[in-house]
Specification:
mainly alpha; two-stranded antiparallel sheet; 2 strands; 41% helix; 3% strand
């Protein structure tokens, strides 16, 4: 499947973070966006609250100037993080008083968050969801409709 350079880069970084246990929803450097942006937390200055979808003044300026961070606009980054945290089970915006998963770094929690993020990343680039395996189980006349490629 052909992907865009920004999607390919994001997928590699998220895959690596997941398997190296460096994916942590509560850390701005190790969350979905933190990993996509090479473990930096400068993106957190685009909004006043972790997980919020509203750009602050700094975010609005970057958005208006057409600034991209590893290929993603400030609004796209906020949406990516919002989807990740929401799907992981956080009440947003992130705050110590708000609901959160019992074990935020549990692989199942992180996997659910990553599936939702990857679906959104594919949607942004008009690419079929790379996590969608439904096609593998489609059949016609009792035979698989599609073959697995090596």
């Amino acid at each position: 499947m052909k992907t865009t350079p920004r999607l390919e880069s994001a997928l590699r970084k998220l895959y690596t973070a997941f398997h190296n246990n460096t994916l942590n929803p509560e850390c701005c450097k190790q969350c979905a966006v933190g990993n996509i942006l090479n473990h930096t937390d400068s993106w957190k200055h685009l909004s006043d609250s972790h997980g919020a979808l509203e750009l602050n003044y700094v975010g609005k300026v970057h958005q208006a100037l057409g600034r991209k961070f590893n290929g993603y606009s400030p609004l796209e980054l906020l949406k990516i993080e919002n989807i990740f945290l929401n799907t992981c089970g956080y009440q947003l915006p992130l705050h110590y008083k708000n609901e959160k998963p019992q074990n935020p770094t549990d692989k199942a929690v992180l996997f659910n968050g990553l599936c939702a993020v990857i679906s959104f990343l594919c949607e942004l680039d008009n690419i079929k969801n790379v996590m969608d395996y439904k096609r593998l189980f489609e059949f016609e006349d009792e035979r698989p409709k599609y073959e697995l490629s090596s």
